[in-house]
Design brief:
It contains seven helices and 13 strands. The chain has about 350 residues and is of the alpha+beta class.
Length: about 350
């Protein structure tokens, strides 16, 4: 093994999936508080009770079967969009590295809190807080549901792991239902479109650079994501000047065509969206070598990188955006990150 700046040899780095542990670590998770509200609100939500339960059962059954056979074609029609795309990528990775199966964390159909829309038009949204399929009562998931038109099934294009230790907003009861909010909804601290863009920038560049007005509160997901970057950078540049051997940067972007938003009891909103990111390790001097094979070296087909190591990810995030007049700040309340690909040379 060569030493010095010409060649950096690393012990096998742990595969950092960030899928569930990042946002679920810490203290106990609690469901959102439910405001009973008027029991006969007008209009009333279309998706409640038995119907929502049936949809969640079909959704969970499709996900379990697809996971069992590692066949993304079995996800339709209940699982669509990025959720299906991310699952397909995970199945492909498992086909090459079987031990990656631990990344298949799965929401169940065990409903904890439903949040249903009273919208009469389309698309219609719903959000269901459900148990983890393997750990009931712990590390729950928010599952987003959308019906595009009257002829379409409710489908899910994403789910986010509930963040631990975060104060949950109060939501209207399932019987009362709630209003939908749009991507450019006014009257909030930021429009949902602005909030997702700012959160992506915070994940990329940190609070000091991307959020000088301090509009977004910290959460376990972003803390862990930034800690990963710092840890990887420190390991690759151990014993030398900052970033002399390699630099590490992950850039996040918003996937514009996936969104759902529902009003909270205090006049704010919970909004779900999808982010994509690319983490690039750029070799600045010599080369980087891993002493042992790991997930990344197996997928890249090499343990030595002379130019770069690139990983792509997909992340579903859930934000609580308070009403502008409240003076409160935006709180990320859920995230679920999936490794999509690895390449390098």
């Amino acid at each position: 093994m060569m030493t010095g700046l010409s060649r950096r040899s690393l012990l096998g780095l742990t595969a950092l999936t960030a899928a569930g542990a990042l946002s679920a670590c810490g203290s106990e998770t609690k469901p959102p508080k439910v405001d009973p509200g008027p029991k006969l609100a007008s209009p009333t939500p279309e998706l409640t009770g038995t119907k929502l339960g049936e949809i969640l059962t079909q959704y969970a059954s499709a996900l379990e079967k697809a996971d069992g056979e590692k066949n993304a074609d079995l996800l339709a029609p209940r699982i669509s969009g990025s959720a299906a795309e991310f699952r397909r990528a995970t199945y492909d990775i498992i086909g090459k590295v079987p031990e990656h199966e631990s990344a298949l964390q799965r929401p169940s159909d065990s409903l904890v809190v439903p949040i249903s829309s009273t919208a009469e038009g389309f698309p219609r949204y719903a959000l269901a807080l459900v148990d983890d399929a393997a750990n009931a009562g712990e590390a729950r998931f928010f599952v987003g549901l959308e019906q595009k038109d009257a002829r379409s099934e409710y489908t899910s294009w994403g789910w986010a792991r509930q963040a631990a230790g975060i104060e949950m907003p109060t939501v209207p009861s399932a019987e009362a239902g709630t209003t939908q909010v749009g991507l450019e909804e006014q009257g909030l601290v930021l429009t949902p479109k602005e909030a997702f863009a700012k959160y992506a920038a915070v994940l990329t560049d940190g609070h000091d650079n991307a959020d000088p007005d301090d509009l977004i509160l910290e959460d376990p997901f972003q803390q862990s994501a930034h800690a990963e970057i710092q840890g990887e950078r420190a390991q690759m540049n151990e014993g030398v000047d900052w970033d002399e051997v390699a630099s590490v940067r992950e850039e996040y972007a918003v996937k514009e065509d996936e969104f759902l938003g529902l009003g909270t009891a205090e006049g704010g909103a919970v909004v779900m969206g999808t982010l994509t990111s690319t983490r690039r390790v750029s070799v600045n001097s010599g080369s980087i070598s891993y002493s042992d094979d790991n997930l990344y070296t197996k997928l890249a087909g090499t343990k030595k990188f002379e130019k770069e190591l690139v990983r792509t990810y997909g992340t579903t995030v859930l934000l609580h955006i308070p009403a502008a007049e409240s003076g409160a700040k935006i709180q990320p309340i859920g995230a679920y990150k999936v490794l999509l690909s690895v390449s390098g040379s």
